[in-house]
Amino acid sequence: MTTAPAGWHPDPRAPGQERYWNGAEWTEQVRPAAPAPPPVAAVRRAAWYRHAGLVGPMALVVGIGIGVAIGAAAASGGDDSSKTPIGSLAEKTPESTPTEDTDTPEPEPAADPSPDGSYQSGCDYLLDPYKFTADASIENTGNITTVYELDAVWYLAGGQSIKASKRVTIQPGRSRRVGIEKPATVGQIDAHQSYTAGDEDCKAVVKIIDTVGEAQAD
Fold it and tell me: What positions does the domain DUF2510 occupy (predicted)?
C-alpha cells in the first residue's frame, strides 16, 4: 500500500474541505477546499467573447492581414519554402531612409560695437599736412535727424597730441564729409617738419550727441 505524501488532501470526514496529512496520520488542520476549475472549452470561449467585445475593430484588422498572407502563400503554388510566416509580416518595419548631412553655414560674427555706442572712423585723408586738417565721412543710417560730434586727435613730434571737435547735423539717409582744422600751437613749426600723413597720425571718433525731430519713414 502506497502512503500519500504530506500535504493538503480532501478531508475524508467532511466533504467540501481539505485536511492536512503529515505523511503518517491526519492532523487537526483544515481549510475550505478550492473550487473546481471550469471546463477548458468554456474558459476559451468566454475569453474569446470578452476579447472580441473589447477590441472588435482591432481583431478585424488582424483578420484581414492574415487573409492576405494566406492568399499570397496559396498563389505561390503551395511550396512550403516560399511561404512567409505570418508572424514575420507583423515584425517587418519600413527601412528608414538615411538623411544626408547638409552643411549649415555658420552666421558671421557681428562687428564689435564702438565705445559708448559711438561710430568710430579713421581720417580718410589729410588735405594739407601743414594746415593739419582732418577729414572724415559720416553717414546717418537711421531714420531720425541726428547731431554728431567729431573728435580729432593729432599726434605731434615728441609724443605730444592736439585735439579738436566739431558738431554736425545730418538728415536720415544722408552722409557728409566733415573737416576739422588743428588749432595753432607753439610747437607747430617743429611738427610740420616731422609730420607724416596717414591713419597713424590722425584718428577721428564720431559720437552721437543728440537727435532732432521725430522719426521719419525709411
Answer: 6-38
Side chain identity at residue 97, one-letter code: T
Q: What is the pLDDT of residue 101?
A: 58
In order of 108, 110, 138, the CA distances from 175 in angstroms are 27, 23, 5
Contact at 8 Å (CB) between 205 and 138? Answer: no
Q: Which of 180, 174, 185, 184 is nearest to 203 (CA)?
A: 180
Cell numbers found for residue 29: 488542520
- Residue 140 and residue 171 in contact, taking contact as beta carbons nearer than 8 Å: yes
Domains of the chain listed by start with CATH number: 1-35 (no CATH), 40-88 (no CATH), 115-212 (2.60.40.3230)
Distance between CA atoms of residues 157 and 134, nearest Å:
17
The residue with cell 467532511 is 14
Tell me which range, 4-13, 123-132, 161-170, is most confidently predicted by mean pLDDT: 4-13
CA distances from 83 to 69, 89, 91, 174 (A): 9, 11, 16, 82
H or E segment and range at residue 136:
strand 133-139
Region label for 5, one of left (φ > 0), alpha (ψ between -120 and 50) or beta (otherwise): beta
Closest residue by Cα to residue 34 from 14, 13, 10:
10
Residues 28/11, Cβ–Cβ less than 8 Å? no
User: In the predicted model, what is the mean pLDDT of the chain?
Assistant: 60
CA 49/CA 90 separation, integer angstroms = 24
Question: Residue 206: pLDDT band by 50, 70, 90 thresholds?
Answer: low
